[in-house]
Amino acid sequence: MSARRLHAPIVLTCAQGAGIRRDAVVDVDDAGRITHVGPRADAPATDVPTTTLSGLLMPGLVNTHAHTPLALLRGMGGDLPLMRWLTEVVWPAEARLEAPDVRAGMLAGGLEMLRHGVTTSTEMYFWADTVVDAVLELGSRVVMTPGIITAPGMDRLGTWEQMRDAISAWIDADGLRFGPGERVELGYGAHSAYTLSADAVATTAAAARERDALLHIHVAEAQGEDDEVRAVYGSVPAMLETTGSLDGRVLAAHAIQLSDQDLEIFARHDVAVAHCPGSNAKLAAGVARVAEMLTAGLRVGLGTDSPASNDDLDLWEEQRLASLFARQRGADATALTAADVLHLATAGGAEALGRDDLGRLRPGAWGDVVHVDLDDPAFVDPDDDAQLVSNLVWSAGARAVRDVWVAGEPVLADRAPTRVDPGEILAAARTSGRRIKG
Description:
nine-stranded mixed sheet; five-stranded mixed sheet
């Protein structure tokens, strides 16, 4: 990594509201951290290289919930509800995966995210060291929460105790964050209350809390999935509270089937939510109560979920869907504005992960920067701040992303990756995809 100055007509900081700065610069030091953001006229003198760009600079998007290696399973069982999709299609296919397949899927999906301006993804998956290696190869960033599960075909990966203890040993050996520019953070991916016992979740939560690590868990995604837990505890949030599993850093994925009491439990324990509107809708799992979550003070970010259930990794589409569904649910056209959902995809996602060094362009944050081309019919009047944000979210999205830096290092240049060969990645993904189908 080397120090650099990025200069553009518009810088969207996402630090406080949209935070639009005109004719502005972003300075990144040798360590990959931002040292200054603001109008060029007020910028400190520097002798570092300056890259002058047209268009707009903004922070990298933060995907708070993904199983990206499942890019290899796109289209399989695409018209089934959640539990049938899992039990009849996904878990049997996953039982045929090997480490090279996971690498191929993570490289393919990770490159797709970079091309969409997603610089950080929160991954819950297996063969975690393989996922991390693929992320470091691409040059992106990951919050890696290795999966812990008891499900058909998964016993070859070990018991849930072995999965949990392997994560603890990894954190104890390498620390919570590591890699160049701290591109990897480790946490625990306790799959769900319907694939793990209450004791398994509670002891995993205790291990995470002891290390100040993130506990990442699916919660109340679809009706009927957690009937057994509800019969005993009333709800999954009630079970998590009763067992002391909410006392650390907790990220609840989906969190759709929640009562008012469940929302109160989450607010009481400062639980964050990864909202995945696209996957939720495709699996007919329901519409999360996002407006109520935000009113209750919950930290909420956006996630794509698996590219096998979505079927893409486009966090711009998730912004649009989040707003549309919130407006429909509340019959309120002002619910979740363009600025609101842009916040969820950037600073809000970082807040959901408990990270103040991501999702914003401000001094001290990592230099994860996205260049958006405004020479597009989507941008009717870039000089109007409100219209600019609206056009960015509702009209342009992923297609306008041109360049991406992570910790100040260029990883995408004019939509082409700087570190990997896209042709090789696609060929490997197709080879693995065909093998898995048999």
